[in-house]
Amino acid sequence: MTKPLPALGLVIGVIVTYVAVGTSSYATPRLIRRLQTFREDLGDSLPWLALLVVIAVVLGLLMMAPAIGAGVTTGSGLLLTAVGVATMVLPMRQSFDLMKLFEFPGAPRFGASYFLFDGSMILLGIPLLLVGIRRWGQEAKLAKLPQPPGLGQGGYQSTYPQQTQQWGGYPGQQPYQPPQPPSQQHSQPQDRPQNQPPQYPGQQQ
Asked: DSSP class of residue 45?
């Protein structure tokens, strides 16, 4: 089982989500322009659509990571929810100042306002926040549970039975048995000379 690192994932989730919202300030106005001008071709909007897809895939893969996924999901939902709610409840001047924090150099003015002022960040942020908190809590409970016997550091449990080492050899090896000397019954014919006949009691040599 991979050791969870939710705190690291929380930081990564906030950073990646901030970059995603800021990058959307480049793509969103181009995509809206196609609707405003009633253009049928995708020549201008297709690259920006691909940019949003790449950002979403990267963020999704980070949320799926076993070690940092819970923290990334929680951090992403926390940032989206906090910024979305703050934009709605703050006065307009402070809301525009907050929106400028998500504008990168070269982006059109008020480019990120579509995400901040239409409630989309709240709608996306709250589910991510709830899912991330629940997943964080479940992983914390699993990390506190004792590991069953035979479970290694990587979470691999051997299916072979445990064998104890005996007689200084390998597990399962039979103990060494020294060769036994031949019995006396079989050794007597071998000790008698081959060319000498058997002797009887009272026989002269």
From this structure: T
